[in-house]
Design brief:
By secondary structure, the chain is α/β, with parallel strands linked by helices. It is about 25% helix and about 25% strand. It has five helices and nine strands, in the order E-E-E-H-E-H-E-H-E-E-H-E-E-H. The chain has a seven-stranded mixed beta sheet with strand order 1-2-4-3-5-6-7, sandwiched between helices. Strand 8 and strand 9 form a beta hairpin. Helix 2 crosses helix 3. The two termini are about 25 Å apart.
Length: about 180
Amino acid sequence: MECDSREVDGRQVGYRACGPPDAPVILCLHGLSLHSGMYDELGTALGAKGWHVIAIDFFGRGHSPWPYDEKCSVDLLVEQCIGLLDALDVEKVALVTGHSMGGGVAVALASRFPERIERLCATAPVGLTNGSHLSPPLPLRIFFAMPQSVAARLWIMLGGEHIIVRAAHRTAAQAAHQRAQP
């Protein structure tokens, strides 16, 4: 996936993208302590299957500097996602997928902008408050996965086609083991 950035409301927003620019869009949202690079393998696999994959760097992560005049909130991250989509002229997202905090943001994004999100895949979503901002029922296909199933495989349903890829994240133990290798 190629790294790039756009200015959104006067702030730089980093992201990675791959796949045909005119193809249906998959928006990938990372967890709190991660960045868009967690989706490199998944994005490359889906890009090769003809999807346009965009993985955002939330503020303070990857290539998106923290806006020190703002307090972190789900609202801020949803606005960041919509701002990047607008800057990239993306009107509709075929699938938004998020892991952990990104899963919580994905649920909020799909709830607040259902006209722009067709499908949602949230893996171990966290970060939602009491859910009062949600407006059920969400008029889209939703798949929630717990960490155990994500660690084995991530199944994403896109237009009736099931795409199987390895999990988009590594466990902390796997990451530590890899760092320890010479």
